[in-house]
Amino acid sequence: MKIYSLWLAFLPVFFQSQCESLEQKHHDDKAIVAVLDEIHRDCPKITRKYALPGHTVNKRHLWVIEFTDNPGKHEPGEPEFKYVGNMHGNEVVGREMLLALGVYLCQQYKAGNASIVKLIENTRIHIMPSMNPDGWELATNYFNKYHKHSWTVGRANAHDVDLNRNFPDLDHIVYTEHSRNNHLKELHSKSKKHLEPETVMMIEWIIDNPFVLSSNLHGGDLVANYPYDSSISGKLQEYSKSPDDATFRHLAEAYAMAHGSMAREHKPCDMDNGDSFAKQGGITNGAKWYSVSGGMQDFNYLRTNCFEITLELGCDKYPPAEELSFYWKENKNALIHFMWQTHTGIRGFITDNMSNQGIANATIQIQNVTDGRVIDHDVTSAHAGDYWRLLIRGVYKVTVRADGYVPQAKCVVVINPVHTLAKRVDFSLSAAGEENPAVQAGDDSCEKMSVAIKVTDKGKDKGKIKEKAKDTYKVKDQNKAKGKDTAKINTEDLHKYMWAAGQQGSNWGQSEGEGAFIENLVEDTPNRAKDDEYYWENVDDLEKLLYELEQDRDF
After folding, report:
1. Beta partners for residue 427, in sequence order
2. Are 531 and 456 in contact (CB under 8 A)?
3. Which segments within 249-295 are labelled E, that is strand?
């Protein structure tokens, strides 16, 4: 939490009088269109307003505003992100926050805000303020008639169907048929559920675009919710891990920590299950909270490459208009920071080594080198051979496979400096039957990467060893004359150096100066003393050691 607090301290304070050009009110469908039109008029070169093909039950459009430096098409190599608000029509905070976000992105881009400019020029961002405009009208009409809000009226669409229970239940297919945890295209058709028009429109949108990261915005509590949403055993409450549980926890924490109060102590919402999410850092596994079948969040993950979480933005589903400025202040930095998570992990292109043409639908498999386990959720490359794979900090073996090609593997250290582009890792595949020495080289590099902290006495307490390692550790200075004492380097100073290098967008030692600095820290003595507890054989090992130590450090 302290790491997040550190970077938050450097975030500029943008909130003046809400969003100056956005009227503080609840916007109906026509007003939403007017705001999106105004955004496009103000920022025509970086925006596009469009509607999904089709209509809601009551013949309304689902409108989207797109932000990117080349609107209207997917740029090879550029990841795509989406925000979806107002899935439940009576949960309106997300609807208003996304309108405010659109105005803010336009204003800050024009003002030259470096972080916003970089985000927009390297990401294709899609913002849908309302997925359920029919439900919003039902909820609003109820209030106008009875002068009070209902907990349920307007939640569903005009057919009285809860849209967050209406997606194909791919969780059930995975759980009962022991299927793989990704791209359930052929199993999608097994769902016998009647799909509402809003659901059909969303499914087509989700499938047709190479989304990498997404969130849908709700109300009624204050928490960031991550997959799986549906319990494995069928219990009402049960922690149900996805293969990417650690990454999803990171994504949820990214929003919660940047939010004004989500991860801090606050009065719990008046919910029947008595959860106090602040004690959990403002996050929860979906099924652990309560099991949901047919949700949009899990559909994104199991049907496509897209990682989605659900954000509950407050206890009051339909707060008074005069409170919207408070919600904007609470959510603004978190909304921006979460979009930057699209650029965590790795990215790159997968190409034919002879033609240099991109290879579509190649499979990217990830193995966590630390524990040796394969993450049972592959992603696939887009039409141009471009791919993105969200990962937390760590060391991974990345294996790429494509029909008609020899597989290729590489070992990758993922650091994820704040608000920088993901580490680029390209693959050039040889046709089946051709020699491909890079495959063997990649495999060897992973096998040679030894455990960062070696413990000669298995009975020793690893926690104490880490504490000792944090204070100081020995490295051999290769520039010193042979036989002289090894240099003592303060761990904290080294962390600060490496962190600063990461903030500058370096690839950790690939530039000449940083490479020399790191190489001077490499222990290459084959015959180590028997009592030597900490060592690394190469730069990758050193980076992994830093990763292990930083989990318990503030820097």
Report:
1. 350
2. yes
3. 283-285
State pLDDT tens for residues 68-127. Answer: 999 999 999 999 999 999 999 999 999 999 999 999 999 999 999 999 999 999 999 999
* Pair 520, 533: CB distance under 8 Å: no
HSE of 288, CA atoms in CB hemisphere, 13 A: 17
Q: Is 168 helix (H, G, I), strand (E, B) or coil?
A: coil
- Which H/E stretch holds residue 398? strand 394-401
Each residue of 339-357: pLDDT tens digit? 999 999 999 999 999 999 9
Residue 530's CB: how many other CB atoms inside 10 A? 5
For residues 109 and 56, give the distance between their C-alpha atoms in angstroms, rounded to a whole number. Answer: 33
Question: Which single residue is written with the structure tokens 């090609």?
Answer: 405
Q: What is the DSSP string of 135-174?
A: HHHHHHHHHHHHSS--SSTTTS-TTS--GGG-S--HHHHH
Told to judge if 312 belongs to the known catalytic residues of this protein, a careful annotator would answer yes
Answer whether 0.90 is exceeded by the pTM: no
What lies within 8 Å, CB to CB, of 83 at 6+ separation is 98, 101, 125, 126, 127, 128, 214, 215, 216, 217, 335
Q: Quick one: CA dihedral 64, 316, 298, 365, positive or negative?
A: positive
**Which residues are CB-neighbours of 80 under 8 A, at least 6 positions away?**
74, 123, 124, 125, 126, 209, 210, 211, 212, 342
Please pick, among 96, 253, 308, 312, the residue that the annotation labels catalytic: 312
- Can you tell me whether residue 436 is helix, strand or coil? coil
Compute CA 342 distance to the chain's CA centroid, rounded to the nearest angstrom.
5
Torsion over CA: 111, 113, 114, 115 (sign): negative
pLDDT band at 59 (very low <50, low <70, confident <90, very high): very high
What is the rounded end-to-end Cα distance, in angstroms, of the chain?
11
